[in-house]
Amino acid sequence: MADHKQGEMDTTVQEKTFEGFVKASTWVAGISIGILIFLALFNT
Question: Does the predicted model carry a pTM greater than 0.90?
Fold first, then answer.
């Protein structure tokens, strides 16, 4: 087993993945709110 050394891990892939997750979550939340407003306005 390799020795772990604090601070040497490359986290660029994890950071990009998390950035994509946050971006997708923001879009989903915005679309959901838009759909709810549409439904409230048109009483469907």
Answer: no
